[in-house]
């Protein structure tokens, strides 16, 4: 197992889980629904753009002897959270995505079970990083994030107050919210809080080069809208 060399704060440790495998066999996929907090309408009551978090049971894939899952993940001990940031080329889960385009593992997905085992993130990490001298079958349960819109106004001298993780694939995740910044002030006055490991997908209605848009925000003043994919606590 190799560790990614990414500049992150103490709350998050990135992992790169490669695998050497020739074939991943597609199998069943069961789609479930999970209504966050038992509420029917998050848009009106919580301010999120989605009404529910979707839970997917994925797999089963074949892991060759000595192989690993082939997932890139980020995890936070503070939140007890593991999220997917990508798949390693040629890995079982990359092949799963190729053969199941409607049920792909996506960036920001939260891992809630591996091989039907649930628990805290340390137990899940052990399960995800385990190897075996024998061929084994592996399945996962993940939860899709919901989108959260954050609106802030920036004047001269204001700072956003965000530490970001910018990955080699261009994705941007939240590493920390800095006390005293605009995002921290937003968190103190809104139920739609920005959290560690939120996945930034849009700035001012533009998606794509999010890291460049955030850098532009740091240098300019005005009204800004951020869209993040998050997992409500």
From TrEMBL:
<dbReference type="InterPro" id="IPR036034">
    <property type="entry name" value="PDZ_sf"/>
</dbReference>
<feature type="domain" description="PDZ">
    <location>
        <begin position="58"/>
        <end position="124"/>
    </location>
</feature>
<feature type="domain" description="PDZ">
    <location>
        <begin position="149"/>
        <end position="232"/>
    </location>
</feature>
<protein>
    <recommendedName>
        <fullName>PDZ domain-containing protein</fullName>
    </recommendedName>
</protein>
<dbReference type="InterPro" id="IPR001478">
    <property type="entry name" value="PDZ"/>
</dbReference>
């Amino acid at each position: 197992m190799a560790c990614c060399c990414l500049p992150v704060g103490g709350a998050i440790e990135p992992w790169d889980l490669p695998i050497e495998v020739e074939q991943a066999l597609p199998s069943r996929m069961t789609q479930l629904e999970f209504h966050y907090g038992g509420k029917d309408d998050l848009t009106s009551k919580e301010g999120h753009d989605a009404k529910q978090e979707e839970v997917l049971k994925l797999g089963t894939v074949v892991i060759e002897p000595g192989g690993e899952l082939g997932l890139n993940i980020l995890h936070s001990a503070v939140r007890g959270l593991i999220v997917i940031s990508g798949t390693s080329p040629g890995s079982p889960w990359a092949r799963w995505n190729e053969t199941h385009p409607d049920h792909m593992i996506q960036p920001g997905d939260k891992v809630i079970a591996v091989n039907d085992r649930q628990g805290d993130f340390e137990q899940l990490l052990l399960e995800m990083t385990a190897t075996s001298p024998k061929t084994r079958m592996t399945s996962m349960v993940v939860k899709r994030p919901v989108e959260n819109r954050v609106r802030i106004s920036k004047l001269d001298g204001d700072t956003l107050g965000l530490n970001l993780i910018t990955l080699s694939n261009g994705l941007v995740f939240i590493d920390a919210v800095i006390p005293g910044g605009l995002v921290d002030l937003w968190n103190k006055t809104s139920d739609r809080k920005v959290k560690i490991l939120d996945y930034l997908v849009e700035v001012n209605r533009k998606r794509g080069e999010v890291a460049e848009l955030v850098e532009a925000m740091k240098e300019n003043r005005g009204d800004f809208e951020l869209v993040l994919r998050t997992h409500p606590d």
